Amino acid sequence: MRYRSLGLCLITLLFATIALPAFGQNIVIPGTGQKVDKVGDTFEDDTWTYQFAAPKSSENIDKKKRGPFGRSSNNRWYEGVKRGDPDIVKIVKTPEGGLPDSHNSLLLKSLRTGIPGRNTYKLQQDDFICNIHDKIGRTSISQEPNCVVRVFLPPVDQWEDRTGPHFAFRIALETTAKKSKSKFFQIGAAKETEIYWPGMFIEFESKHEANRKHDYAWIRLRSDQRGSDFKGLQITSTGWWTLGMSVSKDGRVHYFARPGVENLTINDHIASQMPYGYRAERFRTFFFNICNDDDGKTWSTDWIIDDPAFYTTK
User: Fold this and answer.
1) Closest by alpha carbon to 201, among 162, 236, 230?
2) What fold is seen in the domain 34-43+120-312?
3) What's this model's pTM, rounded to 2 decimal places?
4) Where does 16-103 have alpha helices with state H?
5) CA distance linking residue 15 with residue 23, whole number of Å
6) Distance between CA atoms of 246 and 286, rounded to whole angstroms?
7) What count of other Cβ atoms lies within 10 Å of the Cβ of residue 262?
8) pLDDT(54) > 50
9) Per-residue pLDDT averaged across 218-237, rounded?
10) Domain ranges of the chain
11) 3-state SS string over 98-125?
């Protein structure tokens, strides 16, 4: 299998401090257990299409939900109500070095990631969400839910020449948290369901913006116990990568990544955290973010995904 050099400066791999799971729970390797066939996708159906429902939603910016929302023909994917969907959602031939039996993959790409009809000239993002909600509902963390995807990173000269996040693979989790109207006191605090979104962001640092000899890319993880993102590992080659996340019975999130399309192993473990200090109780879904500068003329990087899959151990 061949990989293209990313042309990045060579530095020691950056690993977050790994806090091993408490309470005797094992780290769950993504891809562990029984694959849930009702969700995820192989993109091998020749009739696969995506139906857009423009103008897309931009609730996160202007509080506008613009239904009806985009949806795939197999009802496995849909437009995010909060940020809208990518401008291009298209089946493409699987790039060289992909999974052995894969013929088709999915291209996700965006130009206008902000408010329809205007430019924000700021970093914005679109959502592409797996329809786990309708298919199987929420999954208890006791089932150790986990998910995996293969992502194709194009040659670096084809990336949007911008420092910042370009792509993300994320999950949506639920927990029970105390909510108070006061910022300083917990008096009268009530228990409510809290939704949060851990994830893995592909970050790019342009040599042109940083005035250095080489571009630099790395995986940023969301988040530590205080809610701060932190650095995972450096990306030193383009081509196919395998990303995965899992949640163990103690409510902790585990992050994995490796170059290539081989199954993840414990050697690909980057970190384990309880993002925001929350102990996860239920798994809602996984989704992807496509980011750009929303200037109306600069397209995002081409992101190709393949065989996103969801597993449970029970």
Assistant:
1) 230
2) Jelly Rolls (2.60.120)
3) 0.90
4) 59-62
5) 23
6) 11
7) 13
8) yes
9) 97
10) 34-43+120-312
11) CCCCCCEEEEEECCCCCCCCCCCCCCEE
